[in-house]
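Duplicate of #3305? Posting structure anyway:
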């Protein structure tokens, strides 16, 4: 079976300036990977993150190494090929994810099933996804809350400063359940003070309050926190899970960090073995990347799969979201098509 891999950069303007604790962006440069076999095309997406030293350029460089791994392979043996992709080059999670997603999409098309059928999950068990709101001025935050009206759960980004101002502006505009993501912005003592206050404000959980490397601080905070703590930047792959179990109540698995679907599935199993809850999250991605995460969604306790909603225009059409819940259809593979 002959496979051909192609890739090109996607220039993706955002609907609003996107501000988190690390900085602000107004557009994203992702990379679309297509893996062709005869008349079938599997698609995957890389959403490189500067936090991990990635860019569209580093993705394209890594693809020069990864392409030969799949071009001579049988996509129906996707488990074996996924392992080879992981071993081909250290790091480069986004590039690996793009190829691995395309591989799984193509395999499911060849088997004539939706992707989720490959791991036997029930799509009716899909959790609600949150809608993310970046750091902004109070009047803009109120407008973003209005735009998120169809979503019953919000995720609010917070930074080192203006915690009560930013969160308060969102809470004033809505009574919905809110999740908070600090993106490594706090020290242990201030994190505890913030979390104790947030616990009085209808917050469900707090993501990555401390720097990823602060393992001891996470243990200290977990023992005192009135809210569940979820590791994001501290987690890349399944091998990270055991050391996080004493510092967090759950983990946020992102295919772009894990290097694709196969490693994400292993991370889910590792989390369950360690008694941790699971969130499936995303970067800012098109419907291609979001669909890949959604096919894992029924395995999670929480979802944060809204990255395509932050785009000014998504070049792909994916699965509909109804009252905050992604509805997977019966289309084969990812179930995504160009707009």
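Output from current build:
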């Amino acid at each position: 079976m002959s496979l051909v891999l192609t890739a090109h950069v996607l220039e993706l303007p955002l609907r609003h300036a996107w501000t988190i604790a690390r900085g602000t962006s107004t557009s994203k440069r992702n990379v679309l990977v297509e893996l062709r076999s005869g008349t079938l095309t599997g698609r995957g997406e890389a959403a490189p993150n500067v936090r991990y030293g990635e860019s569209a350029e580093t993705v394209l460089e890594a693809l020069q190494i990864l392409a030969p791994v799949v071009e001579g392979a049988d996509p129906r043996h996707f488990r074996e090929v996924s392992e080879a992709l992981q071993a081909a080059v250290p790091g480069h999670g986004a590039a690996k994810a793009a190829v691995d997603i395309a591989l799984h999409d193509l395999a499911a098309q060849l088997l004539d099933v939706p992707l989720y059928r490959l791991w036997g999950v029930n799509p009716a068990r899909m959790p609600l996804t949150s809608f993310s709101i970046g750091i902004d001025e109070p009047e803009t935050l109120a407008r973003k809350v209005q735009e998120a009206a169809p979503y019953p759960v919000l995720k609010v980004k917070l930074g080192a400063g203006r915690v009560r101002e930013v969160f308060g502006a969102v809470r004033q505009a809505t009574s919905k359940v809110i999740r908070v993501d600090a993106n490594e912005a706090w020290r242990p003592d201030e994190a505890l003070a913030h979390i104790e206050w947030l616990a009085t404000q209808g917050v469900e959980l707090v993501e990555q309050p401390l720097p990823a490397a602060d393992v001891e601080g996470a243990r200290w905070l977990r023992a005192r926190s009135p809210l569940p703590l979820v590791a994001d930047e501290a987690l890349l792959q399944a091998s990270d899970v055991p050391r996080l179990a004493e510092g967090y109540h759950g983990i946020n698995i992102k295919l772009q960090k894990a290097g694709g679907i196969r490693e994400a599935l292993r991370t889910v199993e590792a989390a369950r073995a360690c008694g941790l809850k699971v969130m499936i999250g995303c970067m800012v991605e098109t419907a291609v990347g979001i669909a890949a995460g959604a096919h894992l969604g029924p395995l999670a306790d929480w979802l944060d799969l809204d990255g395509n909603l932050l785009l000014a225009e998504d070049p792909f059409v994916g699965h509909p979201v109804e009252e905050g819940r992604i509805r997977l259809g019966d289309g084969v593979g990812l179930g995504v098509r160009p707009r």
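Confirmed duplicate; merging threads. The chain is about 35% helix and 25% strand. The mean pLDDT is 96.
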